[in-house]
Amino acid sequence: MKLKEFIKIAIVSLLIAVIITVANFYFTKDPFVWKPQAIIYTINFMFAFTITALNSWYFKYIDKFFTWSAQPAYRFILGAVGSVVLTVAALFVLQGITSMLFFSNSWEKFISNQSKYIYLMGIFLTLVVSVIFHAVYFYKELQSKKMQEQRVIASSATAQFDALKNQLDPHFLFNSLNVLVALIEENQDAAVSFTTSLSKVYRYVLEQRNKALVTIDEELDFARTYVNLLNMRFEDSMQVSIPERAINKEQHVVPLSLQLLIENAVKHNELSSHKPLKLRIYEDGDALVVENNLQVKNVVKSSSGVGLQNIAQRYALLSDRKMTVNKTSSHFIVHVPLLQEPDLTIHLNLKDMTTVEEFKMINAREQVAELKEFYHSCIKTAVIISFLAAINYLTSGFPWVLFPLAGMGLILLYKYLKIADSNMVLGRRWEQNKIASLMNNPKF
Fold first, then answer.
1. Which pLDDT belongs to residue 315?
2. Distance between CA atoms of 148 and 117, rounded to whole angstroms?
3. Domain boundary residue among 114, 135, 170?
4. Is there a contact between 55 and 123 (Cβ–Cβ < 8 Å)?
5. Shared-domain flag, residues 275 and 185
6. Interior/surface letters 211-236, b for 16+ CB within 10 angstroms, e for the rest
7. Which tens digits make up the pLDDT trace of 389-411?
8. Residue 199's domain spans which residues?
9. In total, how many domains does the chain have?
10. Given CA atoms 406, 411, 414, 415 in this order, what sign does their dihedral have?
11. Is 94 part of any domain?
12. Which residue ranges in the chain fall short of pLDDT 50?
């Protein structure tokens, strides 16, 4: 049994023992004498702890063979019947130990003093604790299932997003090589210059591989570099307007979105010095707009479906905001949403969370959660002890409330020492020192 589980069972048993002792004292109306009451409380705690621990072990044992999700009927029947049988058997054994060892009664007297009331009370309390246990269990399972579903969704979305990004690399290289082949035939010097510039452009393609979003300025700089490459081939057949700097510097777009939209415009429109392709990129509120005049080619090669569809799918995985496409008689206009980092609906690169600040944030959240649990325990302890102290004051002059106060106080002390890590055996400091020792060991 783990220490945390032991503490929980001990707390539940302390409370059950207090309830039974107070109820017994109230209904019997016997005069209060502290020593007999202390013995009765100790016996009640022993009964409560043993029965609670047995039932907890039993539930965990049958969960290995019959789960609520797969065999709910068998799990319910085995849980209910087994719990009653264990409780009755444990009560019989515990009563025998108490009667014959504590009070020196004979076996015959123990058997003759058996009462249905004790077994019915034991079964009733067991059923109450069992209902609470299963309610907590189902709640945790429900939360765990929801969390697992979210992880599956996030993992699926991450995989789709990575596939879409990886799709761009061969696509971009293939189209760039086509341009290079055309330049080699027309102008070898321009082909050499194009190859040098292409290496810089492709470096950006590789650098954005692990990024879900890039700033507008990064994308605008890359778009200018890419347009320069196209101008080496088409010369004065293109007129492109790109702002020097973004207005909304904190906004982001998906990487290579401008390159794909420029490429799409070049692919589907005629380009010539007499009828140049006029393309303009500008910001419009919370969108980055790519607009070009329509000079549709009479014959267009079959589309690979990578361009516009790829951008739209990546935005669908990142945000609820969608890319919009408007086509008029004279212009083709695409609005690309501008996003901020907190707008993301999924966390795509969980494996990249390696910075010191992020690790500090994770550790800080864990410690705050532990501290919050400790404060809740303090509040619950204060409420319970106050209630018991009031009963103690109204029913007796002996301060029996000190017994549960001592037990619950020790539990709070343990929790505090665990959080503070003060003089704790095998605490956080021990873990850190051990990790450092292993990391510095060349044989590890």
1. 84
2. 46
3. 114
4. no
5. yes
6. ebbbebebbbbbbeebbebbebbbee
7. 877 777 777 777 777 777 777 77
8. 155-351
9. 3
10. negative
11. yes
12. 152, 155-156, 159, 164, 168, 343-356, 422-425, 444
